[in-house]
Write a structure and sequence with these properties.
PyrdxlP-dep_Trfase_small, single chain, amino-acid biosynthesis, pyridoxal phosphate, alpha/beta, 4-stranded mixed β-sheet, Aspartate Aminotransferase, domain 1, Acetylornithine aminotransferase
Length: about 400
């Protein structure tokens, strides 16, 4: 079998190049397919399964919530939203949150906040700074903010109002915006995930923060992938000691239950008024319970510290094991958001590793991405490495 499998069914749109396996169930960092084969899940549903699979503390809490109330509309107060909003404000040092269901929706909300922030200041055509190779989602506005022509191809006309700059170059950012009174926000990922685990330098983030303060722009940080403890801090930008004004979250927030959020600081917390934004599913009792319980369990079990410690162990172990191997370039990333950069196309390795019992993804054609559940232990990392190395070395040989 090859990795370029045929569509799963004539009744499912052909939007993914799927591997020819189907997952049946999981436990911890392990999943089993419908044929009974076992895999170490180092992809975690793309940085979603924060607590792994069938977590013994999460499952009963969600069962209780499902039996009590799955959904009600935002015409009423939703207590779980209030609990989760307060918790996210505490952890981030920000103020309040808007709840939605996915990452692109959270980013769409951030873009609307930035535009309204501009309009409230009398700017009729607000512009937002975005980055090369950024990924913010696949709606028309978020794919326009995305810096990947493959994502944009076929969907023109794109949304206007974006200025694109290179990463980690404060002079380029100043030059691209100098004398432009329409700029309202800078929108970035602390560590670009889809682009192949490419970090912003902490010093650069501090420079952007300073510029945003000087210019009265919103600093908006897409932490959809790198947030929620993934890098060994609650939010990756905390490594730089800064705070954003607007922070979209999703992926890991509900440990697999779809939920997104936009967390806002004082400058953005009161931009929206009733009627400006909404979402039918956004913040429903089940989704927000998943967020509340995910954070509770993470705090009880020291999961963020685990991500920092075990992530550093995994990174160092792989650096040591791969040093001098021809074709290996570098390890990138922080905590349990890691990329193994190679000097060549390696798309095929995803299927080779799956056949060996390890789930990963390949990003930007040359980077093997590891984003396992944050509950992974050092011993399990040793198992991960034992599955990975023979296939990777054979591939590079
Ligand atoms: C995955 C991702 C998104 C999009 O999230 P969806 O839930 O797929 O819409 C946006 N930004 C970043 C940084 C992501 O990693």
């Amino acid at each position: 079998m090859t990795a370029t499998a045929a569509p799963a069914s004539p009744h499912v749109m052909n939007t993914y190049g799927r591997l020819p396996i189907a997952m049946s169930h999981g436990k911890g960092i392990w999943v089993w397919d419908t044929e009974g084969r076992k895999y170490l899940d180092a992809l975690g549903g793309v940085a979603v399964n924060t607590l792994g699979h069938a977590h013994p503390k999460l499952v009963p809490a969600l069962q209780e919530q499902i039996a009590q109330l799955i959904h009600c509309s935002n015409y009423y107060h939703v207590p779980n939203q209030e609990v989760l909003g307060k918790k996210l404000a505490e952890l981030s040092g920000l103020e309040n949150a808007f709840f939605c269901s996915t990452g692109l929706e959270a980013n769409e909300c951030a873009l609307k906040l930035a535009r309204k922030f501009g309009h409230d200041k009398g700017i009729e055509r607000p512009e937002i700074v975005v980055y090369e190779n950024a990924f913010h989602g696949r709606s028309i506005a978020t794919l326009s903010a995305t810096g990947n022509v493959k994502v944009q191809k076929g969907f023109a006309p794109l949304t206007e109002g974006f200025i694109r700059v290179p990463l980690n170059d404060i002079e380029a950012l100043k030059k691209a915006t100098v004398g432009n009174p329409n700029v309202v926000a800078v929108f970035l990922e602390t560590i670009q995930g889809e682009a192949g685990i490419v970090p912003m330098r902490w010093e650069y983030l501090r420079q952007v923060r300073e510029l945003c303060d000087q210019q009265d722009w919103l600093m908006m940080i897409d932490e959809v992938q790198c947030g929620m403890g993934r890098t060994g801090k609650w939010f990756a930008h905390q490594w730089a000691g800064i705070k954003p004004d607007v922070m979209p979250l999703a992926k890991g927030l509900g440990s697999g239950v779809p939920i997104g959020a936009v967390v806002a600081g004082p400058r953005a917390a009161n931009i929206f008024q009733p009627g400006n934004h909404g979402s039918t599913f956004g913040g429903n009792p089940l989704a927000t319970r998943a967020g509340v319980e995910t954070i509770r369990i993470m705090e009880e079990d020291g999961i963020v510290e685990n991500a920092a410690r075990v992530g550093a162990y995994l990174k160092q172990s792989l650096e040591k094991a791969l040093a001098g191997v021809p074709g290996y370039v570098e390890m990138r990333g922080e905590g349990l958001m890691l990329g193994i950069a190679l000097d060549r196309s390696c798309g095929d390795i995803q299927w080779k590793l799956a056949q060996a019992g390890l789930l990963v993804s390949v990003q930007a054609d040359t980077v093997v991405r590891l984003v396992p559940p944050l509950i992974i232990t050092e011993a399990e990392c040793d198992e991960l490495i034992a599955l990975l190395l023979p296939v990777l070395k054979d591939f590079l040989a």
